[in-house]
Amino acid sequence: INRATIALYEGLPSGPEFATFIEQTGVTMLGVVPSLVRAWRDSDACTDADWKGIRVFSSTGEPSNREDTLWLMYQAHYHAPLIEYCGGTEIGGGYITGTVVQPCAPATFTTPALGLDFVALSDDGEPIAQGSDGEIFLLPPSIGLSEKLLNREHAQVYHQDCPHGPGGEVLRRHGDQLRSLPTGFWRAQGRADDTMNLGGIKVSSKELERILETHSEVFEAAAVAVQPSGEGAEKLIIFVKPAGTDVPDTLKTDLQTEISTHLNPLFRIEDLVISNELPRTASGKLMRRVLRDRWLESLAE
After folding, report:
1. Within-domain flag for 8
2. What is the mean pLDDT of the chain?
């Protein structure tokens, strides 16, 4: 329709060959995921390529960070903005994005996506103030929102126990956590529920914990995702209550093998923390947010 051409590359996009391909084919719009940008930066894959022909980057799949975003824009001589885009298959696209007609800041979003709106609510169900984090709820109706799930009850997943909107609206749970910045921009803060985003792949904490607890040295496990610098890709942190008093030195490696074999080899354990007890609510629910905060506090010590 717009006289555009799609450039298809066969092979892994993480090496210098891909960077050269982008230059030689005259790509003007390049879609990326943050993990790929970090791989290019770490390996100097773009050193010998000239990407001055790129007019705009688009990033999705997982949260970006400012350093990698600026590095990527440098590859195009700072002429090409990076447009962040966040959503999901179950909503038929995105709910928040950046645009090329608004001011933008690295690793942030500027506006709700066309045809959809959302609210960010605190744990008390109230709209958040600027500078605060909140869980995202979508405001139906919108073209693209799913109405049925093949393996779960749709209403239970997206509507059960949802608060009402500021004006009494019916809301739809999405599960992302965003921060409303004083500048008016938004920054992704990972997931608000027990789902995490590892390298652009969503996985439930409970799925990971089920695999980990099959190990003979693990009495109980908790899997949480954190952003060590407050932005960017999530890292997998594993808390383990050991089955015995002597914890083998190979436990982290052993658990990594279990995850790689039975779930996904792309899920990498950033840190393993041994704990005598895992915090729970009065009703017995595992308090993963407490563990997440505890690990982040340990970085500052």
Report:
1. no
2. 92
C-alpha to C-alpha distance for 258 and 262, rounded to whole angstroms: 6
What order do you get walking across the sheet with 218-226 strand by strand? 218-226, 235-242, 269-274
Per-residue pLDDT at 216: 94
- Does residue 1 lie within any of the structural domains? no
C-beta separation of 81 from 107 below 8 A: no
Residue pLDDT, tens place only, 207-219:
999 999 999 999 9
Q: Assess whether the previous peptide bond of 141 is cis (omega < 30° from 0).
A: yes
- Indicate which CATH number applies to the domain containing 228: 3.30.300.30
Q: Within 10 A of 57 (CB to CB), how many other CB atoms are there?
A: 21
Whose tokens are 């997440």? That residue is 292
Question: Residue 125 and residue 243: Cα distance in Å, rounded?
Answer: 39
Q: What are 237's strand-pairing partners?
A: 224, 271
pLDDT on residue 90:
93
Whether pLDDT at 1 is above 80? no
- DSSP assignment of 96-140 equals EE--SSS---TT-B-EEPTT--EEEE-TTS-BPPTT-EEEEEE-S
Number of domains in the chain: 2
> Which of 173, 191, 209 is the endpoint of a domain?
191
Please report which confidence band the pLDDT of residue 224 belongs to, taking 50, 70 and 90 as the band edges: very high
> Which contiguous run of DSSP H or E holds residue 271?
strand 269-274
Q: 115-125 burial, b for 16+ CB within 10 Å, e for fewer?
A: ebebbbbeeee
Distance CA(164)–CA(156), nearest Å, equals 15
Q: What pTM, to 2 d.p., does this model score?
A: 0.77
Last residue of a domain, one of 161, 191, 221: 191
pLDDT tens-place string over residues 176-201: 989 999 999 999 988 877 788 888 88
Is residue 241 scored above 90 in pLDDT? yes
